[in-house]
Structure formats: C-alpha cells, structure tokens
Write a structure and sequence with these properties.
198 residues, mainly alpha, flat
C-alpha cells in the first residue's frame, strides 16, 4: 500500500464529504438530478460511486470529486462521516430510490388516467409508511432525550453532568441517524426541517 500525502488525504476526505452531501441532495431533491445519467449509474454500485469522476454545481459553486478505490472510500467514510460507510451506503440506496421514484413520477405525470391515479395512491402509501417509520425513530430519540435530561439533572457534579450530556448527545444523534435523509441529521443550528413529501 502506498502512502498518501497530507494533501491527497485532505482531498480524499473532502471528496467523501462532497459525495455525502451530493447523496443527501439527491435523496431530498431528486428532480434536480433526474437527467444526470452518470450519477444514476454510479449510484447502482458502491464501486462505481467510489470511482466517480464528476463535477456539479452546489449553491452556485462548482464541486468535483476525486476517483478512489472502494476500500479507500470505506476508510475515509469511517473517518469523516457520522455512521461511517454503513450510513454512506444507506444514503446511496436512498438516493437511488429517490431518483427512480422521481423518474417514474415524471413518466406518469398524467394523474387523470386510471394508471396514473393508482401510481399516485401507491406513492402516497409509501410516503405514509416512511413518515410512520421516521416518527417512530424520532419518538425513540425524544424518549432517550427525556431520560437524559433526568439523568443529567440528578448528577452530583458538573463533571458528571458534562460526561452524561456528551454520551446522551451521541446516543440521540445515533438514533436519529437511522432515519432517511433529510431527517437523519440533527444540526447544531436551531433550524427545523419541515416534514413534507419529496
């Protein structure tokens, strides 16, 4: 195995974070990427996504990736992403599903036909199932938070309070990360993600 320089290491770390943000964007806003066949093909296999050499515009800035091996992708995901490669790959699958659904919706845009109405009913039932799952996970996180508040409140010293607070924050973030994007991350900001369909 060859050693990588610090600049290559930083570049690979940045690529992994960019890919992760791209996957989140696709999962949340699949219509933005519906015509990008290169991305759609890369999402089908872990190794294809690792080897992706691509650029796109994010928030008015051109962003690009550096191709790497699958093992390198796994390594850097474990270093730079909460939940590691397992979370990254789960998001890859969510993004592929979101693109597939968006493509299907665009191909069956006439909701006045019997087939179109049936497809819309199926889509809405899937949305309900996903929302129920998200609500269940969020209720678990809320329950854990209540337990954490009680535990922190009863701590005898500030040091114990800080230690418990750090542990419970990690636990709640881990629980929430089980959700699909965009409901899988708790930001440090006070903004709230609206619960709406894709």
């Amino acid at each position: 195995m060859t050693k990588t320089s610090s600049s290559e290491t930083a570049d690979l770390g940045n690529t992994v974070r960019r890919l992760y943000e791209l996957l989140r964007d696709i999962a949340i806003n699949p219509r933005r990427h519906i015509e990008d066949n290169k991305i759609r093909e890369a999402l089908k296999r872990q190794s294809a996504l690792a080897e992706l050499d691509h650029f796109w515009i994010a928030d008015g800035v051109e962003v690009s990736t550096t191709p790497m091996s699958l093992n390198t992708l796994k390594h850097y995901c474990d270093l730079h992403i909460d939940g590691g490669f397992k979370k990254f790959d789960s998001l890859r699958k969510d993004a592929l599903e979101a693109l597939t659904v968006a493509k299907t919706r665009s191909n069956t845009s006439n909701k006045r036909t019997f087939k179109g109405i049936n497809l819309r009913v199926i889509e809405l039932e899937e949305t309900i199932d996903k929302t129920r799952k998200a609500n269940f996970i969020l209720l678990q996180a809320l329950s854990q938070s209540i337990s954490a508040i009680n535990s922190i409140r009863s701590a005898s010293t500030k040091q114990i309070q800080d230690k418990r607070a750090d542990e419970y924050i990690k636990t709640v973030r881990a629980i929430v990360s089980l959700n699909s994007a965009p409901y899988d991350v708790i930001s440090d900001a006070t903004n709230v993600t609206p619960i709406t369909g894709r």
